[in-house]
Amino acid sequence: MKLSSTLLVTALLVCSCSFGGRKAGEISDEALLDTVQKYTTRYFTDFADPGTGLARERNNDRNGNIVTIGGSGFGMMAVIAGAEREYYPMEDGVGLIGKMVSALEKLERFHGAWAHWYNADTMQPFSFSEFDDGGDLVETAFMVQGLLTARQWLLDKDEALAQRCDRLWKDVEWDWYTRGTDSLYWHWSKNWEWKMNHRISGYDETLITYILAGSSPTHPISRECYEASYKTSTYYYNGKEYYGITLPLGMDNFGGPLFFCHYSYLGLDPRGLKDDKTDYFERNRAHTLIHRAYAIDNPKKHPGLGEDLWGFTSSDDPDVGYSSHHPGTADENGTVSPTAAISSIVYTPEESMQVIRKLWSIEGMFGPYGFYDAYNPGRTPAVVDHYLAIDQGPEAVMIENYRSGLLWDLFMSSPEIIPGLEKLGFHYENH
Question: Are the C-beta atoms of residues 312 and 242 closer than 8 Å to each other?
């Protein structure tokens, strides 16, 4: 799976030269999407930790060889798509998922939940923050979304490995993370127990956590838990208009960062997904178009923003490191994160392709694992030449979902999911 240094250099030269210096008009949309998907997937193959197969948190990590659980769940889905696209032999894709599953079976878990980060060299949890050194239920949900997708994909390829994915999913004690209350809680630590005291509520990236918890055949939560916790947040219902676009759910600040439209929907198919509050596909499309309209309006007068350069989400930053960047906050400093518009291609295909073509034309913006993490034309250097697993993963997965619906189809074929959704009050139309 890992390219030799000579092959990698050759591949990069091909990428740099064969498309005429990356002039956007000299490559078709399909060829460009395939190139972006292929190179982005390499973050989870060529750059995976060689011992565990898990995704490294970032390519410039000061903390050592740190792997990320949520990013590895995203990466697992990207690997599946890459195998189906014949970016590498099918058996290599199956083998890499097998390596990841073996590592997941060995890592310390906390009532079935994994920690946010692990040191791949020691296989021990690595603290995400001072009191966050144990189970992280949301990161675990992102991993389980990948595991269920992998389980379904493996049923006709490696039944034993599929069953190992199934066991990992069934071992998560979602109900234990309610603390006997009407809410799910994000963190638990052997050292600090519930000190983080972070109740999981929405609307944000955590919706998949409640859906999986409600769908669990072994440790389920009730609909009442979802209704009383997630849906009663001060930032759940919105209903306001931004640039003439109504946003049913989400934060006051233009809906918040765009990863809210991505992380829960890499496997969960938003097309026709509805409840008593919203159509989730249309909600996510509205959120994305609001970000685009904000960039066109450009109230802070940042250079370069417009219809071909938009999308604000958490990513690295030329000034302060990792930051949220979303409109309506001081963090919005003109930094555009490629993952924002690219991962929204399922909602806004034409508008997202404009951004992809613009990014493709920018010198130094495309590297060995796809587009770099951020771009701010008002800074020098403008390109933030880092990679993060949680940004690369949604790009590769959502490009595939746009092209074929593969990851949506696999995840939704899980027999637990539709009954779980119905239990929580969701339903599908025309699906």
Answer: no
Q: Which pLDDT belongs to residue 379?
A: 95
Residue 202: is its pLDDT beyond 70?
A: yes
pLDDT at 415 over 60: yes
Our separate counts of H helices and E strands in the chain read 14, 13
Report the run of H or E that residue 243 belongs to, with start and end.
none
Show the tokens assigned to 297. 């309006």
Of 176, 219, 182, the C-alpha closest to 199 is 182
| N residues, the chain | 431
Tokens of 341: 């518009």
Tokens 């990679």 belong to 387
Q: Which tokens hold the place of 35?
A: 């190139």
Give pLDDT, residue 7: 34
**Sign of the C-alpha dihedral, residues 328, 333, 334, 338?**
negative
Q: Which distant-in-sequence residues (6+ apart) come within 8 Å of 186 by Cβ?
A: 136, 137, 138, 196, 198, 199, 200, 206
The structure's pTM equals: 0.94
Q: Which of 263, 269, 262, 300 is nearest to 284 (CA)?
A: 262
Report, in angstroms and rounded to the nearest whole number, the Rg of the chain calculated over CA atoms.
20
Q: Which residues contact 418 (CB under 8 A, 6 or more apart)?
A: 412, 428
Over residues 161-186, the pLDDT tens digits come to 999 999 999 999 999 999 999 999 99
Structure tokens given for 243: 């640039």
Which amino acid, 73? G
Taking a C-beta distance cutoff of 8 angstroms, is the pair 175, 219 a contact? yes
Segment of 34-38, 123-127, 321-325 carrying the highest mean pLDDT: 34-38
Give the Cα separation of 88 and 386 in Å (integer): 25
Residue 125 above 70 pLDDT?
yes
- Specify which residues 246 forms β-bridges with: 241
Q: At what angle do helices 280-297 and 349-361 cross, to 10 degrees?
A: 40
Q: Distance (Å, rounded) from C-alpha 372 to C-alpha 368?
A: 9
CB-count exposure of residue 21 (10 Å: 0-12, 13-18, 19+): exposed
- Residues 398, 345 contacting (CB under 8 angstroms): yes
Instruction: Give the domains, in start order, of the chain with CATH numbers.
Output: 26-428 (1.50.10.140)
